Amino acid sequence: MDIDQEDSDIIASCDLSGQHGRTWRLSKNETFGRFVVAARNIEAGEAIFREKPLVSGPSLYNSYLVCTACVSYLEHGVECRNCGWPLCQVDCPLLQQHL
Q1: Which tens digit of pLDDT belongs to each residue from 57-71?
Q2: How far apart are CA 57 and CA 81, in angstroms?
Q3: What are the backbone dihedrals phi and psi of residue 65, each rounded to the nearest 5 degrees, phi first?
Q4: Does the pLDDT at position 12 exceed 60?
Q5: What are the backbone angles phi and psi of residue 7, rounded to the nearest 5°?
Q6: What is this structure's pTM?
Q7: Beta carbons of 33 and 56 less than 8 angstroms apart
Q8: Counting Cβ atoms within 10 Å, is residue 53 exposed (0-12), middle (13-18) or buried (19+)?
Q9: Burial of residue 68, with CB atoms counted within 10 A of its CB: 0-12 exposed, 13-18 middle, 19 or more buried
Q10: SS3 breakdown of the chain: % helix, strand, coil, rounded to 5?
């Protein structure tokens, strides 16, 4: 069964390959809940999703120091004036995403 209109308005398929049409469609059933079904043949390695990260930043399990704004690896960082977390530079181009 296809997903109802309310849910399908939230998540939409976009063909990232440059072809026209949908790459996939959102469906649901009682066994699996919501899931994605291919709407056409998808090539191996072809990107079918593109999304921005919900959260990014330093990891407790990663020994590398990263900028909490742009997530670039750091040899040495500077402290954020607001929170004290590391930044690549005081005026990092992505500072607004951190704040």
Answers
A1: 677 787 888 888 888
A2: 17
A3: -85, 130
A4: no
A5: -75, -35
A6: 0.46
A7: no
A8: exposed
A9: buried
A10: 10, 20, 70
pLDDT at 9: 45
Tokens of 67: 């900028």
Which structure tokens are listed for 69? 């704004």
Is 57 in contact with 68 (CB distance < 8 Å)? yes
Please provide the size of the chain in residues.
99
Residue with tokens 């951190």: 98
Q: What's phi and psi for 18, nearest 5 deg?
A: 95, -10
Q: Where are the beta strands (DSSP E) in 1-99?
A: 24-29, 33-38, 65-66, 73-74, 78-79, 86-87
